[in-house]
């Protein structure tokens, strides 16, 4: 689940802010009894992490590849965590990683790395990228310490938009291409959010899962790239390989 999807969850769940937890269950190994009686102060996101902030601790939810949720409802399967709230409300979290964060979130998270945040700092992202040696750009875009919230769909679409081959090396990118890619990572994330809210995200995919390039009609290539071995779809004709 990518950053824009969590922005949608944050909007869907905002009506539960201020409610008290009256029961907690699920297969997660956190101390669920310790959550009972605590009031939800706020919901926040950092990249792919969804944060349920309580008075003295924070529940961190990472939806991984196939995580899902239900607000005021259930689905089949055992939830990792189910929070029963006053007023008959509930939050059910499935196929995700749950852990607790104590202390200040500012000591844990670099908010300037979150592409959806108002505190996103493109210049800091550039400095981080400039310090990298020997990394493919397809891995760099998925590095949550640089582009928090960017997932594989965004990676593919951004690289297609700026015409960069996913196996290009970070240090080989011309300065203008590096700038374009950094800016597009944020721009496309907000496009993703807008389209997903309208239930039309797939309609706007240019290269992800496609068989041919919409620019030049060259057959698209599907390849597992970088150390992460995530799926990359690209045009070998109009996406330049920088080595």
TrEMBL record:
State whether keyword Disulfide bond applies: no
The organism's place on the tree of life at top rank: Bacteria
User: Which GO BP terms sit in this record?
Assistant: base-excision repair
Enumerate the GO terms in the molecular function aspect: damaged DNA binding; DNA-(apurinic or apyrimidinic site) endonuclease activity; lyase activity; oxidized purine nucleobase lesion DNA N-glycosylase activity; zinc ion binding
Q: Record keywords: DNA damage included?
A: yes
State the Gene3D superfamilies in the record: 1.10.8.50, MutM-like, N-terminal
Q: Which reaction does it catalyse?
A: Hydrolysis of DNA containing ring-opened 7-methylguanine residues, releasing 2,6-diamino-4-hydroxy-5-(N-methyl)formamidopyrimidine
In this chain the FPG-type domain maps to 206-240
| Keywords linked to the UniProt accession | DNA damage, DNA repair, DNA-binding, Endonuclease, Glycosidase, Hydrolase, Lyase, Metal-binding, Multifunctional enzyme, Nuclease, Zinc, Zinc-finger
The cross-references to Pfam families, in alphabetical order and at most eight, read: H2TH
Tell me its family.
Belongs to the FPG family.
Under what name is this protein listed?
Endonuclease
The lineage is: Bacteria, Pseudomonadati, Bacteroidota, Cytophagia, Cytophagales
